[in-house]
Amino acid sequence: MAEGNNMLLGILAVILGILVIAFPLLSIFTASVLAGLAVVFLGIWLLAQSFGTWGASKAASIAFLILGLVAVICGIGLFGHILAFSFLASIALFFAGFFLIISGIMSLFAKEGTAAKGSGVIGVILGILYIILASFAWDPYYLALLIGIWLVIDGIALFFVSPSDLVNTKKSEI
Questions:
Q1: In Å, how far are 122, 131, 153, 160, 174 from 165, measured between CA atoms?
Q2: Per the domain annotation, does 81 fall within a domain?
């Protein structure tokens, strides 16, 4: 049964990936609307937290209030704004690439052994790849293409990985 679910998720991911590639602006618009709504709801929850913590800690309550207001304003600004969503995705990829490069370089110098040096080199290479992808993610069309390709690859990978293998791997790590 679990393998059937895995196959179904793989098929859904491939179909969704193809749809994202076929309709890039509609897909990115939808993603920006969902992200904007999520941030607005987070802001509303933080505002509610600010009123709930007023009696316990006025400083925490004011921090929740400020953070909630900022989240609501950012969520409204992100809601349906394709360029803002592309900008945030690109910035996240730049940060991830930067940290991968730095941690890879640190691994090269701090660790001993071939495997450690190899993981450092892989970290630097992946960091450079992330930065290259981030430069493409500025454009909503390329961002949709990157997301669609990732969904298709992930969906195909789900065809070849059985959930029981994942469970057995996690049990052996514990």
A1: 25, 33, 19, 10, 15
A2: yes
